[in-house]
Protein 1
Amino acid sequence: MDFNDTPEEAAYRAAARDWLAANVAEHKAASHADDMAAARAWQARKAAAGYAQITWPKEWGGGGGTPIQSVIFGQEEAKHPVQYGYFTIGLGMCVPTVMAFADDATKQRFVGPALRGEEIWSQLFSEPAGGSDVAAIRTRAVRDGDDWVVNGQKVWTSGAHYSDYGIVLVRTNTDVPKHKGLTMFWLDLRSPGVEIRPIHQMSGGSNFNEVYFTDVRIPDAQRLGRVDDGWKVALVTLMNERLAVGGGGGAGPKEILKLAREVDAGEGKLLHDPAFRQKLADWWVQAEGLRNTRMRTITALSRGQTPGPESSIGKVIAANQLQDIGNSAVEAMDQYGIIADPALAPLKGLFQSATLNAPGLRIAGGTDEILKNIIAERVLGLPGEIRTDKDAAFKDLAVGR
Ligand SMILES: Cc1cc2nc3c(=O)[nH]c(=O)nc-3n(C[C@H](O)[C@H](O)[C@H](O)COP(=O)(O)OP(=O)(O)OC[C@H]3O[C@@H](n4cnc5c(N)ncnc54)[C@H](O)[C@@H]3O)c2cc1C
């Protein structure tokens, strides 16, 4: 493991730092529209400088750089109050799938606008019957002339309410095992028959949606990959999920230490409470473990290697720690803990926000249990899960009826 930049990496970091210092504009968003406009402007500026998708080829508007350069830029960018979350799923997962499977004309039409933040993409995989087990999805597509007619429902579709396009996984064959009867398409989310219903979250936000399909016609020309070969396409999407090795930050041990110095608990400050000190020490040790695991991933990238499944460890630990720290801080704040308004709550409501958002983080991108299965099977080499439905036709499964 190597904690230091190579001379080339240090030079790249210095250039990125200078560029960010010269280009980040102070912006306080007053509304969602305002926030979106600022995010689009920032994305366009990065695209013009080759910083929007550093690892993409230059011919597609990328930076023609390496994964480690992308990590370095991400670490530096995270130090600034800029917004780019709207584009993460599209640029990290959907558009790379389009680039891998669509024809040249489609790529020419869509890659540039997505890169510049002009168009936003969503990933429509999960359904009420298929989340961890995506291959169990039931949304059906039936061929009709040059089109496919799609009926069914997706759920937890992040950003669909502000997205323009999406990639959608559907079932095209029920006579074969579940992984073998899926097909992927791209579609315009404003197509007739697509209904997007935002889900209201306990945090007050609405970041994801239910998406209903009623006789939606998708031209066969919008198919990505071969008919019934959508599982292979979906794996490309999932493998492109951005490596969560960036800057960290947020409600961590350092922030709760700051709070513990200020909050009263019984006879003195919370920091002097022995039970709290024990927890703080545990979080500190975890945070160091996380930092070292991330450094191992970054070292692999720096050496041109592909990081292994051990990066799943980071997500399980980080999401659980965030929830644990958030809950402990909210409890320690006593009645102030229930004030979530950033204008009134201590540390601008950082811990209240952690408490409300951490449960979702433990589910998104693979639940704790699924990631532990990956660690057990692929890192520790333990026996695989028993899969009784692997060879059965989808129509013969309980979920397939
Ligand atoms: C913030 C957020 C954003 C999301 N964004 C998107 C998006 O943009 N697009 C999209 O398609 N989806 C999205 N999702 C959906 C997400 O991928 C699923 O919620 C996730 O895969 C879990 O699926 P599920 O909700 O159906 O739960 P289930 O798969 O039904 O799981 C229920 C419980 O059973 C456990 N479980 C399931 N299988 C196993 C097993 N084999 N072994 C042990 N335990 C198991 C799970 O760990 C969980 O505790 C998002 C979710 C969240 C929370």
Protein 2
Amino acid sequence: MQEDELKRYEEIGNWDFSDIKYTTKQESKWDFYQIIKNVTNSTSLLLDLGTGGGEKALEFIPDVGMIIGTDFSSKMIETANKNKLNYPNKRVKFVCMDNLNLTFPNNLFDVVCARHTIIDAKQIYNVLSDSGYLIVEGVDKYDCWELKQLFGRGQAFKDEVSISQIDLENIKKAGFKKVKFEEIIQYEYYKTKDDLLALLLKTPILDDFSEIAPSNNVHKTYIEPELFNKYVESHKKEDGIELKRVLYEIVAQK
Ligand SMILES: C[S@@+](CC[C@H](N)C(=O)[O-])C[C@H]1O[C@@H](n2cnc3c(N)ncnc32)[C@H](O)[C@@H]1O
């Protein structure tokens, strides 16, 4: 279990970014929820790993037979169950479970999806039914790279092999027959400095899970103001402060 990470997500307690003002321009045609729509129908059983507060599952996962959303943070699951009250007709259940220790029976799910969360390809393979799909959208090593270089740290900054390559290898090794991989380049434009700062304080982009605030031993991301201002000044564009995102998509069939 990733103790530091769990502690951080427990403190945050939701994955809601609706207060942050930004726009997105994407170069590739990738649409996570459209892919899910393409491979499901009204009877599909779908597992959404690392669902957070269920925000995306509730709003964007299309109507299927049943969605099971899991997260290792009980706080996130509590939030998901609260958010669910706003979607009385959505067939969804949320349950606390570690992605690295799935306790579902084998061959259960028609589709497993995982957006911006850790996966264990072999365990997913086991819980998928024959011909079932795994759909992954991940945050890659080179995500927000200029920012990470400026701060000299960040999520996956020091990884020798990028997480996308590790996921891809593991998915192939697990036995998936058809595996499609693609890099996703996306530009985000934050309306104000405060919008960008709010993103950096909430997400682990500049976090290597090594900084502990000494006063109360609670994990905190510290953003050095001079480095932050330097980034902002050099990335101001017409649409806002630019952040280049590098994500990856994997669609695999059992
Ligand atoms: C970046 S958020 C993504 C949330 C959601 N999938 C979305 O796209 O909005 C990552 C989520 O994965 C969860 N998570 C991280 N490691 C996990 C693990 N080992 N098992 C289960 N959940 C995990 C975190 O608690 C957090 O809610």
